[in-house]
Amino acid sequence: MMSVIQVINPNTSAAMTETIGAAARAVAAPGTEIVAVCPSHGVESIEGHFDEAIAAIGVLEQIKRGKEQGVSGHIIACFGDPGLLAARELASGPVIGIAEAAMHTATLVATRFSIVTTLPRTLVIARHLLQQYGFTHHCAALHAIDLPVLALEDGSGVAQEKVRQRCMQAKREDGSGAIVLGCGGMATLAQDLTKELGMPVIDGVSAAVKMVESLVALGFGTSKHGDLDYPLEKPLSGAFQHLN
Predict the structure, then answer these.
(1) pLDDT tens digits along 93-108
(2) What is the pLDDT of residues 105-140, one digit of tens each?
(3) Sequence-ordered strand ranges (E) for the chain
(4) pTM given for the model
(5) How far is it, in rounded angstroms, from Cα 244 to Cα 236?
(6) Angle at Cα 190 formed by Cα 31 and Cα 171, nearest 5°?
(7) Whole-angstrom Cα distance, residue 25 to residue 36?
(8) How many beta carbons lie within 10 A of that of residue 184, not counting itself?
(9) Dihedral class, residue 179 (left if φ above 0, else alpha if ψ from -120 to 50, else beta)
(10) Which of the four, 14, 62, 89, 114, has the lowest number of CB atoms within 10 Å?
């Protein structure tokens, strides 16, 4: 059965959207079409709570558009999973966040995992998600490469090498059985790092693609019984009218 998965990069970087789309297509089944999109307005990188709040609106706009286009499911390709529950209220198909997908996957192949992400200030966001998803006791350590998200797209290779070094450090020091890459812009690094380190290095974009494919194949969409039912009908004003 042909399925169409909308992969949403919540920031406005076209280059990062291409990176994320390439990672998704690399693992997609032959019958799966990947549509990688990003908002036309918002923030060019998501590196804090303020950025996430702004990006969540762009995510909801893309969810609405994807639903109107008849996509089978949606992926939120930012490690903060911005707007995830709100997106599930709007969507009928499954919606998976890449942090959620990566953490779930890590617990299926290892008892403990480490996370390697970008800026130190985003570590608290990862900790909040670990608590929310119930994985705090599965996470051995969190590491930051101390470079901004867009350094992954500057062509220098510096950020990619820092990710590699942090992953090697995590393997040496953390006692983890798997490593989770904590940024959508790291998505294309996972396969090579898995081979080099000899342990699972998990990219949430790839993991989310396989989860959405599985849910679609099982005939499951987002439950509309309970709190993820469609939003209550009420008028939206001003800049939000188009979300009606």
Answers:
(1) 999 999 999 999 999 9
(2) 999 999 999 999 999 999 999 999 999 999 999 999
(3) 3-8, 32-37, 73-76, 95-97, 113-117, 139-144, 178-181, 201-203
(4) 0.97
(5) 6
(6) 145
(7) 10
(8) 33
(9) beta
(10) 14
DSSP string, 13-62: -HHHHHHHHHHHHHH--TTEEEEEE--SSS-SS--SHHHHHHHHHHHHHH
Q: Give me the residue label for tokens 């500057």.
A: 154
Contacts of 219-223 with C-beta under 8 Å, sequence gap 24+, read 220/94, 221/73, 221/91, 221/92, 221/93, 221/94, 222/88, 222/91, 222/92, 222/93, 222/94, 222/95
For residues 211 and 104, what is the distance between their CA atoms, to the nearest angstrom?
Answer: 10
Tokens of 134: 């119930």
CA distance 138 to 143: 15
Query: How far is the C-alpha of 45 from the C-alpha of 58, rounded, in Å?
Result: 13
Q: Which residues pair with 4 in a beta bridge?
A: 33
Rg of the chain over all Cα atoms, to the nearest angstrom: 17
The span from the CA of 99 to the CA of 76, in Å, is 9
* pLDDT value of residue 1: 66
> Which tokens belong to 127?
């900790």
Which two three-digit tokens encode residue 140? 């051995």
